Amino acid sequence: MSERKIRVRFAPSPTGPLHMGGIRTALFNYLYAKKHQGDFILRIEDTDQARYVEGAEKYIIESLKWCGLEMDEGPFLKNSLHGPYRQSERKHLYREYADQLILSGNAYYAFDTSEDLESMRLLAKKANMPNWQYNSITRNTMKNSLSLSKDDVEKRMKNKEPYTIRVKMPRDQDIRFYDEIRGWVIVNTNNMDDKVIFKADSMPTYHLANIIDDYLMKITHVIRGEEWLPSAPLHVMLYKFLGWEKLMPKFAHLPLILKPDGNGKLSKRDGDRLGFPVFPIEWKDPGSGEVSSGYREKGYFPEAFVNMLAFLGWNPGNAREVYSIDDLIKDFTLERVGKSGAKFDPEKSKWFNQQHLRLKSNIELAQQLKANLELDVSDSYLVKVIELMKERATFSSDLISDRYFFESTDDYNQKTFKKKWKSNTLGLVKEFFMLLKEDDEFTAFSIENIFQKFISKKEIGMGTILPNLRLILTGKGVGPSLFEIMELLGKEEVMRRHEKKSIFFEELFLENSN
Ligand code: GLU
Question: What is the percentage of the chain residues whose pLDDT exceeds 90?
């Protein structure tokens, strides 16, 4: 077993967009595979045609790509050994195994219609047994190949009466399996029902198709969300019945992702309702046309999104939080995945983005910004703006949100002025600009020097005129070093802004002194 090449699969059903929980499952599979030089496989589980959603598969593939979770095998890839990778294209494979289960006495035909099942449930409810199940106790009262005579069964088959195939759960047996995250799990078969494994429409159900494909695709580890833990005992049983026990993959069920207040599982509906995206990329519902926001469109870096997801349930056991995907691959282990639900914190996602933004070089950020936006400035100018803005930015759009770097601000906000303007300083301000006019160097250093000398000569504090200079040049009350801003804008532009705005301050100054 230990010599088998590690092979894991991400097996979503294309019933809609993947939310971040789905991507986290894909990520943990990917990290595990890459850590062990194994294969990461994408399998589309589309046996339930009724729940198929147009565009969902494309969305899944695009999301994985955006996150950088490159697959080794999957739909659309050439040279894939174990394909096809869509269950709808593997339909012909499954029946043989259902027949094998019937032959070995571990499954049976069931002819009960949905009405039969419904009336049985109603009867049970009336008799105060609301949790009626099709199981080892009740199966004899139902219409199936175990309760009906051989002739009757043959007749029904001949008449092409629709039937399902159900697994025959033995009575009172403990099923034990080891979960890599949860440890030993023991479930008694008395608590399990005879699940349908093959449907009347000749399609296998999830349970059967899932384990057959895991077997045929030589999957070594099943890493999936906690919501599948209740299905695992049935899967273990099916491996046993099919004689594949030795090749059964190891199981690891990941903890739930909880809402920010810790109150229940984070759901697809929580996203825009609580003001943050739950989807990796934007999703437009093909039916309603409703658009749900995505991390990509909100300006998150995929590296930051992936880093944030990795910490939803996993931690490296030390204080480090900022990780590249390569470092995650190095440090990831299933042992360090927790059992209890991981609370999602939207503020922390922003923090991760900020950290990854700081890790990027200014030139890289400049090039990304220029590729996505029409910015009519040189790379070197943009790099300098980025240098000034980086410490305050969370998203790359924050780096260029201060438009005064790129255009003369004519829309000065009167309110900001009134609030921040230090009155009775206009004379000083003008005098300072006169001095600046003489500065041929015009570097942050030379400007600061002039400024320091000026305030000490006038015996005033920095705060007496600095806020006003900032208002004049940028229209803002706060921002990065004004001396740096002045150097960047250049002497000509600084003087132009001063002159252009002088009428504005004079009017305001008079108004304030009235
Ligand atoms: N198709 C299942 C899903 O939608 C896969 C569960 C599993 O990984 O076994 O999540």
Answer: 85
